[in-house]
Amino acid sequence: MTAFGSAPSRFPDDDGPRPGSAARLSPLRELQLLESSQAGDPDALRELLVSYQHRVYAVCLRMVRNPETARDLTQDTLVKLIEGLGSYTGRAKLSTWIIRIAMNCCLSHLRKQKLRIHKSLDDAVGLTGMPRSGTITDPREPGPGTRVQRDEDQDLLLRALDGLDPEMRAILVLRDMQGLEYQQIGDVLDAPVGTVKSRLFRARSALRDAIERIGGREFDASGPDH
Amino acid sequence: MSQSIHELDLLALIEGELPAADAAALRAALADEDPRLLALVDAVIRDRAALRALPDPHTPADLLAELEALVARPMLVAPMPAPVRTRHAGGRQWRRLAIAASVAVILGGAAAATIFTAAGRQTAVTLLAAVGLDREATPGPDVDPARAPDPERRPVPDADTLRADAGPAADPGAEPSDGEATDAAWPPAGTIIVHHGPTIIPEVRAAADVPGAPAHGDPTLVAAPFKLVITTPARTAAALEARLHDAAERFVADVDARAALVSNFTLDEAERLALLDRVRSRADRPAVADLGHADHDRATVDWSDLLDLTEADLPEAGRTDRHLVGARRFDAPTPAQLAFSAHGASHTISVPASRLNALLAQLRALDGSTTRLAPLDAASRAADSFEQYRIVQGALRTLLADAAPNTMIMLPIEIEATGARR
User: Fold this and answer.
1) Numbered ranges of CATH 1.10.10.10 in chain A
2) Cβ pair A1:B50 closer than 8 A
3) Which of A31, A119, B32, B400 is the most buried (most CB within 10 A)?
4) Which of B53, B63, B193 has the CB atom closest to A71's CB atom?
5) Shortest CA gap A168–chain B (Å)
6) Residues of B with CB below 8 A from A71's CB?
7) Does B81 touch chain A (CB under 8 A)?
């Protein structure tokens, strides 16, 4: 029997999967593995875990930025996945459900660690009608295509992301790194779509502020332009 | 920020959700009202692109090893549903699964399973009754999950392995060979395997009678609530029917002599029958000497009327020998053919439930075609293929829940001539 089809692109405005990302299972294959896992097939469960471990680890690492902590949180997520597999009803997409588990683990961890660099939602003023005074654009570094420049830019970006409030960081991780739609983000964060949009807007503004604060210059993306 | 430019407008611009004209207009408004805000928006757009371009981090290699240990540690694995017992065990877990599956099928709008006797009389039985929810379950032997076959690791059996045992049951005292299920353990739904496509059941070596199941002389015919769709490019559609016939012949010869292939009524034939039936029921009984297709109104066929028809009801002109291959006594009866015709199936093949797997494996090998199982009812077919798969899964489990290995499953087959599908 042939499969029903391939999974749709997660990034409709991109040409393909994220750089370095592992191939994702098609929804049909996921369902097959899920049902086999629920029926007690350890091979199916193993394949499901292996297929999702990269994605879960990516979420955790981007949230906590510490590889060892991200590893622990990945383990926690997968244990919860195994424990909760029997009760998964299919109401949400499997990927959304798993990412929700991962995000909850991360947010719970961060709350406990009190690693928040205080930045309330109301402080994000960059795009809300109170632009910074003076110019914000600094001369670009030469050779944006060089590997060194790209690494520096990525490091700056990640440091800025790390400096955000966990809730704002979460929404950017879900939107830009996991490619979730508004409704899916809402399902993960348990928030209505309107709230998701509002938070996303503020998160983007806060990230811009953080980049300028840390880098002292305009961040010049080396990736594909919008 | 300008009163005329809302935060959500800016977000839409940043996220690339605006049509080009609207985006251009918003940019123009920003450039006019607040150039610095426009510059910020552009910077945020580049930030977004940068985030999306970040490569996924490299997953530590030993995380996999730890995962393996995680899966192997039973105390961390949540209790899975108990290995499914035989249909005769009637365990609570199995009944819950059967109930859930049957409810899913009913709510999904799939056609109710219909049971036909060999005499051709249609006894409409609801799905609930078919899965035994209206009677006490009969206790029976449990399945030893350790001895259940692992079909995922078994190759598709060859003809010798699959050769049907139409005779008496195998020696009940004989030990099954390694990795095989006993007849008493069939159908062990806990070992349902999944190939690339709809779920198909594991194979058993012998279609032996199960205690309590009808004898071969009085088979139970059960209509599948789904159909097999064989898709082929239009240019090969004419040849596909011939290949289907050949494949069915090989199946009968090599696998199970009880299988039977019939051609269903075409839509034209069904329309003609419907018209004849309407005319026959009219009090004035006008002459209907010539009911050629060119003359009668090709109005929508009222299938509900046709489902009551039996061979005896058909006018002489409507009675044709539709048998193609296999044992005639297991031909799908006329009402079933008409019912399946209503769903677009041009053929129906009857096959023992224990051989359904082998049949699907054989039919998928038809060159140039793809195969899938699809729900029968239009409402379910309107769902996307992912949802259709789930519906068929549920229907298959429900169908097999109460079927003995020798229960004859009538599987409608639709030949779909389209562009080639992957």
Assistant:
1) 121-215
2) no
3) B400
4) B63
5) 14
6) 60, 63
7) yes
Give A62's contacts in chain B (Cβ within 8 Å). Answer: 57
- CA-nearest of B364, B109, B107, B100 to B240 is B364
Tell me whether residues B54 and A218 touch, CB distance under 8 A.
no
Tokens of B92: 């609570």
Are B105 and B394 in contact, with CB atoms under 8 Å apart?
yes
- Residue tagged 């959700």 (tokens): B17
CA distance A111 to chain B (A): 23
* Fold exhibited by the domain A121-215: Arc Repressor Mutant, subunit A (1.10.10)
Q: Are B167 and B67 in contact (CB under 8 A)?
A: no
Counting other chains too, the contacts that A113-119 makes at CB distance below 8 Å and 24 or more residues apart are A115/A166, A116/A165, A116/A166, A117/A163, A117/A164, A117/A165, A118/A165, A119/A163, A119/A164, A119/A165, A119/A168, A119/A206, A119/A210
Q: CB–CB of A39 and B190 under 8 A?
A: yes
Domain A27-113 is found in CATH 1.10.150.530: no
Q: What are the pLDDT tens digits along chain A (226 aa)?
A: 222 223 333 343 433 446 556 667 887 888 888 888 888 888 888 888 888 999 999 999 999 999 999 998 998 898 888 888 877 877 778 889 999 999 999 999 988 876 444 444 434 434 433 333 322 233 344 444 566 777 788 888 999 999 999 999 999 999 999 999 999 999 999 999 999 999 999 999 999 989 888 876 544 544 444 3
Beta bridge partners of B411: B349
Verify whether the Cβ–Cβ distance B53 to A224 is below 8 Å: yes
Q: Within B73-143, where are the H helices?
A: 92-107, 127-130
Facing residue for A218 by CB, picked from B43, B78, B84: B43
Which residues of chain A neighbour B43 with C-beta distances below 8 Å? 136-137, 208, 218-219
Contacts of A179 in chain B (CB under 8 A): 52
Per-residue tokens: B180: 């095989």
- d(CA B107, nearest CA chain A) in Å: 16
According to DSSP, residue B125 is labeled -
Give B340-401 as a DSSP string: HHHTT-SEEEEEEGGGHHHHHHHHTTSTT-EEEEEESSHHHHTS-HHHHHHHHHHHHHHHHH
Give the closest of A35, A43, A207 to B47, CB-based.
A207
CATH code 1.10.1740.10 region(s) in chain A? 27-113
Interface predicted TM-score of the whole assembly (ipTM), two decimals: 0.76
DSSP 8-state symbol, B317: G
Q: In this complex, do B63 and A62 lie within 8 Å of one another by their Cβ atoms?
A: no
Q: What is the pTM of this model?
A: 0.43
B347 pairs with which residues across the strands? B263, B413
Cα separation of B301 and B295, whole Å? 16
In degrees and rounded to multiples of 5, residue B29 shows phi and psi of: -65, -40
| Residues within 8 A of A (CB atoms), B 363-382 only | 364, 370-373
